[in-house]
């Protein structure tokens, strides 16, 4: 408890200088549809139990609900990622960081270190220091490769220790050889030996909407990544996706079981059986397995 | 036998509505050089025993014969594939499916379901229902990714159960996570969570020549795929390729064996030995191993 | 009259060997919605008077009708064209020609010259010989540049003399310097000094649906090209587009006239006036100018 | 005066709902180096007389000062523009507009129309209504082409009437044919017949820093565009650029005059003469022409 | 005469330090097929009278001879050029300059200024100082844009004054606005406001073979550029190209004259007439016009 | 010893015909900073013991020294490689080979076979025959894929047997399936079934500076490749890199050990501890481990 409050204070201190941050009031306004609790700064907190269920989903199950929602056409970012450890699903709550090309008149007054005594701490490291269990850092570095390397092996270790999840960066990572053994899933655009370069890039926003591929990501969105790409799920849709997916799982299990018998054409079975007896058999199977 | 005729009738029924299909007469005309038997619809049937031999080839051995044939410059499609399971060779007889961007005036009269009672079966699923052992579906989806996903895990299972081979699609697949465990080699351009979208794409041809990369593929061509790309071998060249490859296998075996002794410069041995004694040694080795 | 019949016979002779051609019966089936007359081969013949009206349109006016039609999402091909004489609108009736990469087993039996005595005439030149006034050749050369040059200055002259329109080729042209002075609008992908190369490309279809960019083009479609790209308008939509455009013309004329006074904010006037007096003024203006 | 206040009030009304807007206080903080006056909302107002001088510059003269400033490496955006009327220089004060992919939970509460009676006015049109003489709209539409068309001929007319300058859009324009005759310089990425589509894009910021190419643009920056690309000049550097350019103009005039005599090698004259007599001649020429 | 010798001496002085230069002996060896005279340094000197004739050619006429020469497949560089003044043909004798990414251990000992007193003259400016009437500088800057700008308006003026031709640079130019009025044809890859940057690029060769696009260019090759791209013609082929082109000119003149009568199909006339009377007419026409 | 001299003589014989080769004198001039011994032809010979230490480096450690050296900005080539066996580090001494597009007038006099009796040995195979233990062939094939395949399985075996290292080719390899089992790391651009084609490419230089990506590579540079790309290290910097890396290793070890305790924020520890006690602890740890 004490720790939580400390974090909050630090947040207020370290980040108030950013050009863009959503106030708690704004966070509530722009995530008004969130049906769950919230963190101290207003960010939606989809419960851990729900995150566990999301880990069992496929990206198509996310699509099947989200593509029907008017006003949410582009929550998917599928093109051009390089993926480290594509065999591990990436699931967690988005925290967002936005960079833009550096210019001194904006950078100097917005750097949290300006006017502070004590050691200089890079803005992205302050951001990493605030990460919590279940968070997924989502970093908009506008595809920058040289000097756009958000972490090397040391900070990647720090992220993984804090979050137990992974990382999304529309930019680069450094020291791919050193990061590989950590075993965390990372979605990135490139690799470069240079460290992040604050003379060409500056932090402009923390926990604001950011554009990743063709998706707008909000803090508190559920990040879902696998071989098929990345989805950013607004909290208000998580439950429906999880609920519908159970039926899809059972349907696909039954469909492939039937096809594996070699006795049917695909259209006898898929997308749904036409024969009344098969139909009945499937419905029975579904009833028996739902909720198990 | 009975089964074969059924398939043929079904074919006639289900596909007669397509805009483009080669009649049996046309199939014979355009594959007149085929030295083997044929399926009921006229498609060349390179024998299974020959397919087994093709599985032992390398793509360079295919090249060495095909690049010499006047009029067959572009049977290779090597650029821009993503390959699932590149460690498994893809070998089989091509069946082809062509899509174009949808327009209602063409799509409605050419859909096999138009004017038919009973359940609606998507044209590409009718195509999958007709697949036989040893077939390789080769699908021209003109590089379409979103809404250009020819299969997900259910239909991929259906294809693999029917063919025991794999899939080539100049377009996308869906549910890469669910398809991966099936273990079939797939050559594709991208992945997307959406299903195939008949409001933007329509089937225009079945078992016609299709363009894949820079190659024109005919039904009955032998599909050959490995890490090095895809070849589409007209039936009339299969035997010569297989025959010549045996010599190449023995040659490479001997060459590498000699180089591994560390006693020779590469030009002493490769492409062929200059020294009369070595020359003789190689010829003896070749004679002993040919046909074994 | 005599001329028309000759053309038809020639057509039957010269082209029957093509792999794909729509028979008159198929042409009627796939253009059943055409409200106008037809050429002898069944191709829709949107009247010249209507073509004249189409020349007064903008590409946005075409879009405003076509984007509403279910099943016609992609009649626009806007990306990646190089345009010769972009200041001249291209309007006419599509005739289509399809190429694929050459392979001898298809090319030899489908070449109209095979088995014929007399001089060899290249298939694309036979196609050009059949062009009529108001036609626009639409050629699918699958983006081929070297050896994919459908015309140089001589054949471009032949096309322009016959059609008085222009040319669309998803491929290349030759002799850009010599073609430029002819003054016809051409939409093409590149330029190369080589002539078309029948050892790497072959004609596979004449007057069939072809894919150009993301559009499927049918013979008889109205080609509409300007600086904004290309539209292929199915005949059944031409009249509605022309009718609606008249209102848009008057609306834009009035809107810009008002804005030019400098007395209004854009939202006072555009997209439509809110003020009742202005509304009335506009309606009066519209009534006075419609049909003039 | 009265007018100025009205504008300010309107601004407050129309735009307060945007997710991101710099308050007057923030505007002062982030443009603290501005040596000139300001608009009511705090945006720097480089004087008209200075804008006139900027029109006489070349892009190299801008570069020669800006590339030396630590912290301003990337004020140039030169790649990938299509330019309408490249022969006319684009010079004016930036006002900025930022879009992101639409999502309903952000879009609804941030739309200025939400909860307002009266006619719905699109956010980008409200932005256009506020433009003043000498402004250059700089729009971040993240390269979107279809549905990313910020203006057609009507709104382009409105912009030109208000600003007498031009337009920069990292996105598309509509109705290129209708916009061309207005004669204003426009830097854009593509053309599409569709209007802007608020179901896939939403306004997220007005008069905030935006990223255009590799540059971060601030409201009040001087936009400078010619055949060589675009520069966004922070107000604090305008005077130095103008001052130094005069010398460069005279230097280049003298250099080319000398080279045109045909009596010198380039290195006798350029970058500066080595010969003492020539050196003296140049210095005299410079002194005589400076300030004229 | 005196001037010529001076140039030669200067050449020897200024350039001996380059990493790669062909000695006169090497120049003779690698241009042994040159049928014309030579410059003092051994570079082939195709006569001015021949250059005049080359100006009347089209790029297709160059192609028609060169594509037949075994061992000269790739003398054409057609892709990806931006052309300034494409309406003016570029014809002249190639002089070549090669850059590579800078590294100090190579750059310092190969800079002609090293160890010399007097003013520092940039290596590319020494190269420009040596240009003669009829030369075309061909510069391999490996596609470099930022810092790869071989000339601005001052040095472009120097080049044009010396050569009366133009410029080819696989790299960039600076100050496009200032260069445009000079009116010389330039083939380049991009534009950037920065000057050439010797901390990232260094001169590695003068008058050696350089790679431009897919062509290898030798000093003394005839550069031929128009809207259709660039050809680099080895001297030994110039005469044959010029001779054959005359026939092509007359042929095309006659062909278009005939087609313009509107009485013939294209295949009656092109590529050559079949009808004996027409054939005769053409042959007569050719005889009458040859050599005129 | 005898063997070494033979190699030298052979070198002199086989390669003297190349257009570009550095003489021993030139090699010394351009690698004057080399602090180690040399091969007979002047190529720097960084000792084996040093190569062993280089194998323990990461690419970031190379960067940290090289990016500080004035005049060596671009020794890194990171973009666009396909890597075979990325899990194995590639370390060795560069030997370089340069190709350009073929033209007969250069190729014939520069081919080492010209005027020689005996069997024809391809120039690239002569190059391979000269390879020694610890060499890494670095081949500039200007990105050529078809006909740009420097090795298949036979010559790859020859390279690996001679060098025990790997291969860098800015071009293609052939027979990827056959090369894979050899297990050597290869950096390449593509795969094609064709062999190298001397009618479109010719060898122009041996052991000269070559451009690979944005780097200039000299014979004797240390090639360093891993998942993060390729570095070409001039010999004069190897020792400093190795020395500094030891400290980095210990630093990273200590940093990650501390972060793994879960008791610290990243900024308490990284990049260096602020707390005096931690600082002291780290310094002690460093002292204890340096040189171990």
Please outline what is shown here:
Six copies of one chain form a homohexamer. Chain A has 292 residues and is α/β, with parallel strands linked by helices.
Jot down its keywords:
homohexamer, 11 helices, elongated, two-stranded antiparallel sheet, 16 strands, alpha/beta, 10-stranded mixed β-sheet
Biggest sheet overview of chain A: 10 strands, mixed
How much of the polypeptide of chain A forms β-strand, as a percent range?
A: 15-25%
Secondary structure tally, helices of chain A: 11
Compute the separation of the termini of chain A in Å.
36 Å
Explain how this protein is built.
Six copies of one chain form a homohexamer. Chain A has eleven helices and 16 strands. In chain A, strands 1, 4, 5, 6, 7, 8, 10, 12, 15 and 16 form a ten-stranded mixed β-sheet that branches. Chain A has a two-stranded antiparallel ribbon with strand order 2-3. In chain A, strands 9-11 form a two-stranded parallel ribbon. Chain A starts with a helix and ends with a helix. Chain A is an alpha/beta fold. In chain A, helix 4 (59-66) crosses helix 9 (238-260). Chains in contact: A-B, A-D, A-F, B-C, B-F, C-D, C-E, D-E, E-F. Chain A binds chain D through residues 19-20, 26, 29-33, 69-75, 100-110, 142, 199-200, 204, 208-209, 211, 214-216, 218, 234, 236, and chain D through 19-20, 26, 29-33, 69-75, 100-110, 142, 199-200, 204, 208-209, 211, 214-216, 218, 234, 236.
